[in-house]
Every structure is written in structure tokens, then in C-alpha cells.
Amino acid sequence: MATTADIKNGLCIVWNHDIFQFVEFQHVKPGKGNAFVRCKMKSFKTGRLLEHTFPSGHDIETARVVRQPHQFLYSDDTGYHFMNQETYDQIFVNGDMIENKDLMKEGDICDIVVHEETNQILSTELPNFVVLEVVEADPNVKGNSSSNVTKNCKVETGATIKVPMFVEAGTKIKIDTRTREYMDRV
Q: Which of 50, 63, 64, 177 could be a cystine partner for 126, CB 3.0 to 4.6 Å?
């Protein structure tokens, strides 16, 4: 058992017959009254973001989860196939358990989150940044030179990303998989 003092980003807990992961939290000590922890948690079952407030010192049940590195092999009609980097066993993951799956290309190393007690796959986490090649980009329009002007481009995996005006087809770009934002040219 843990308490609200142990809350940190990424911690997984069992709460309301589901497993949640803390995304954000804030310890609040008002001038009058008891302290509390305001937090945002993401459900592994539904994928929804939930806001909840725990009183300070409240006991929480932590969930024992393991992040195992797996290499993405291929996808087909049944779903996504991965290979464990340590045991070379292949597993199948449903597409609903992968966020931003259109940014994933064959050979990428992803972390598969597994509940240690039930050996159930909870989710698949892509690396924070991926490097993809731009296949198709909207043309530049003369006069669009003010700051922060973006255009759409299609990358090699088929995803559409907003990029600055100077990015052309054939350019390799770095993308943040958590926010789907253009980071830099490579």
C-alpha cells in the first residue's frame, strides 16, 4: 500500500475496478482546511482521462506493471505483431491498445505495458520521438512568411503532420509521438 505522498507521474494504481496511470498531479495545501492531491489519471481499460481529488494521506493500491521492450514487426487484418527483445517471442496486440499507431513503422522499439499479476497487456507506448520521411507536402504559397505558419504533410507511415513551410517532400523530420508535433529536421 502507498499513500498520496507517493504519487508521481507514471505511477499505476488499482482504483474502481480498473488500472489507472497518473498523468498529472498537484499537491494542494489551502490556507483553511485539509491538504489534498488533485490529479489526472488515464484508464488502461477505456483510455479516458479522469480527474479526481484524493485527501492527503489517503491509502492507494499500486498496480505492479512492467514495461517490456518489443520490436514492431508488421500489422495485418488481425492487428499488430511485436517481438520481445529479450526472449524473441512474438505477441499480438490489438490496435485499440496503441495510441498514435499511425506514427509507428516496422522496426521501431516500443514498450508494452503488462500487469505483472495477471500477465495482461495494458497498453503499448511508442518511443517519445520518431524520425520519419516526408512523402508528400502541400506546396509553399508566396507571401506566407509570417512566423508559425504551418502546412500539412504526409509521412511514410501515412500519418498527416503539421510542419513549417520550409519542409519539402524527401525531408526526414523528428516527431513527438505524445503530441504529434513536428520537432526538427534530421
A: 177
The residue-averaged pLDDT of 39-66 equals 92
14, three cell numbers: 488499482
Please name the residues in contact with 173: beta carbons below 8 A apart, sequence gap of 6 or more: 131, 132, 133, 134, 155, 161, 163, 167, 182, 183, 184, 185, 186
Q: pLDDT tens digits, residue range 131-177?
A: 999 999 988 766 666 667 888 999 999 999 999 988 899 999 999 99
Q: How many CB atoms lie within 10 A of CB 168?
A: 12
Amino acid at 74: Y
- Is the CB of residue 168 less than 8 Å from the CB of residue 154? no
